[in-house]
Amino acid sequence: MHYLKAACGFLCFLILASNVWSMSRWNEARGVYDDVCYLRQAHLFKRFGLSGLDTNAARDDDHYLSAKLKEIGFPGWGDPTKAPCHTPMPAANKMVLQYPPGTGFVLALFPEGFQVIPLYVLATVIVFGFALLGIFYARSKASILSAAAFGCLAIYLMINPAKASYSVAPTMVVCALAGFLTAKLFLSEHQRQRLVLAGIVGLLIGLSVNFRLPNLFLASGYFVFFFVSFVMSRKFETVLQGVLFGAAFLAGMVPTLVANAINAGNPFATTYGGVDVTPPEFSLGVIWSYVADMQFVLLVLAGVWTAWMLRMRRGSGTGQIALVTAANLLVNLAFFLSHPLFTPYYTIPIGMLSLWSLLFGSLLQPAEAVDEGLVGQAAKA
Predict the structure, then answer these.
(1) Intra-chain end-to-end CA distance of the chain, in Å
(2) Is the sign of the CA dihedral 158, 160, 166, 172 positive or negative?
(3) Which residue range forms the structural domain that includes residue 336?
(4) Does the keyword section mention Cell membrane (predicted)?
């Protein structure tokens, strides 16, 4: 077992090393508008501190944004009213960044001009750490190989498709940590520990909203689970867990709410515009784009794994993890499949949060629970 774990860990390390080698040759001026806008948010934080939450294009008096747009050959680079990824706010008579501030804040932690590479390397190393943690917790050859296979996949995804948007790298880290703690939450037998973990998981998912606004749907499965559990059991402990989760989730979103208040005039008003705020409408073209993409593989894997866990351990801690995951997958798929745009990374966060939760839920369950589940399945057969 020890040799197999060491070999699997080394395989994950080789993929990590390959990623780092590839990332070391990245260029921050690759011509993607989103990149420029995330880097502009980082520049505002470096220049103004927390006042950098104000993303008014008129604050580009040092010509950082125009220089970046000129560098990638953007037409009209000298006109702030034509800047990409910016939305006009007629009430305030200004143009503001549409993205929440989290990705820019994380980029601002690194030296200007050398921000993307260290962000991705650090995020990939953290994901590698969770891959090793999964291998460490595995107790059988099958579980070791499963943990290693998923760990290798998770590390690889840090380049493709995570490279497509700077917001995905920190989101992937949050998904790994939240998945691990979700397993801890529902497998814990101590009420106080469950309360603490519910708050931490809620805070983490709330913080992820600051990287990508659609990440707020990552909390949907938890809210559905806590609500339905209370309706069915009427237990005060369930209400308390749900309230702590919700309060922590809202607290994690505070930077985005403050940024919305500054830029859009209301904490709950959006800085997005155009196609991103169109009503939901299912399109066969969008649905087929997901079916033909790598994301579909992750979603199918998560769905099959969820169904298997529900059948094996219904009513147990692992069953609760599967229920949360099932609700999360359904709500997120309903949103993204009805969204008029497709990207190669939109459903990656829900796929990874689901798979990390299911992986650690399988690995951390007590050995006797595994044995009872197998015996139960054999008896039914």
Answers:
(1) 30
(2) negative
(3) 160-266+283-365
(4) no
Q: In the prediction, which pLDDT does 115 show? A: 96
Cα of 268 vs its chain's centroid, Å: 21
Q: What pLDDT, on the 0 to 100 scale, is given for residue 140?
A: 94
Q: What is the pLDDT of residues 327-357, one digit of tens each?
A: 999 999 999 999 988 999 999 999 999 999 9
Say if 118 falls within a structural domain: no
* Res 315: pLDDT: 63
Low-confidence ranges of the chain (pLDDT < 50): 371, 374-381
Establish if 148 belongs to a structural domain: no
Predicted confidence at residue 367, as pLDDT, reads: 62
What pairs with residue 88 in β-bridges?
A: 95
Structure tokens at 308: 């298997």
Q: How many CB atoms lie within 10 A of CB 121?
A: 18
Listed in sequence order, the DSSP H helices in the chain are 2-23, 33-48, 64-71, 102-107, 116-137, 141-156, 168-187, 191-208, 220-233, 236-252, 254-264, 284-291, 294-312, 317-337, 348-364, 367-380
Residue 215 Cα to chain centre, angstroms: 6
Q: Do 93 and 166 fall within a single domain?
A: no
Would you say residue 339 lies in a domain? yes
Residue with tokens 């702590």: 244
CA–CA separation, 93 and 267 (whole Å): 18
Q: How many domains does the chain have?
A: 2
Length of the chain equals 381
CB 318 within 8 A of CB 187: yes
